[in-house]
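User: What would this chain look like folded?
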Amino acid sequence: MIIMKIGLPKALLYYYYAHLWKAFFNELKVEVIESNDTTAKTLMLGKEKSIDESCLALKIYLGHIEALKDKCDYILVPRIYSIVKTEQVCTNFNALYDLVRNTFPDLKILNYNLDVKHHHSEKNAFIKIGRELGFSIIESASAYNKAKVVENNYYKTLEIKAKKEIRSNKTKILLLGHPYILNDNLIGKGIINYLEKNNISIVYSYQVPRNLIDFNCNKISTKIHFTMNKEHLAAFNYFKDKVDGTIILSAFPCGPDSLSNEMLLRKRKKHPILLLTFEDLTNNTAVITRLESFLDMLKGGIHL
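Assistant: Here's the prediction, encoded as structure tokens.
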């Protein structure tokens, strides 16, 4: 079998599927290469490849593609339309494969299509990947099943960590947003580092129990259409009485976030919320000032 290297851009869908992807390829003994953490250069490369209307997260993603494209044989770029039959994900994820293919016409792409609404299951998608790499249906299905166990264990670990943070005597904050925003080195990591230096206990929105998302989301809205944003509403409802305040991180101009964030602001009652929307990453001073004020308000027991 030909030995090849599969590139994983460390942005967007990576922060939802990295554990599943890496476990799958590891089972098949296929080498994986991840791009480095986001830097100012990554963003600059992405801006050069993007149209102005692209959200910050998409610009970063394209920067990771540019940085990774000459280091591997293929780059994994899935197309995801629906994870749940009655819902949809962000349109950027719908169009991600076509966008990358047109932006990087010479790039060798490893692609799969996940669209539960139209009967394209995740398992069949991964079997397709395995087949394209030269593995049998049985080998590919077995690798996928084992990778799902790894992924499920990862989410269980997240839930355990959240319970531990909630029991802390420190000031507790729910950091709410897409994982690719919260965990990005250039966006969320600076916020996380600042909070930790100020002795804040952090709970992340993606730590909400998977089996309680629908129930908790419905307490705020039964009509939310976007799967990833259901997680935001669910996390807020689940954690809001367990933390002292919530910080929302969003990338401009994210349509789904603009809707779900507005819902949270209207439903918060007296729960303190700080909304930080990033269009560019050039003014850290303003962000730190707002964080300082928010923490002072929490520690002073002031509820707006």
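Residues 168-299 form a domain with the Rossmann fold fold (CATH 3.40.50.11900). If you want, I can go into more detail on any region.
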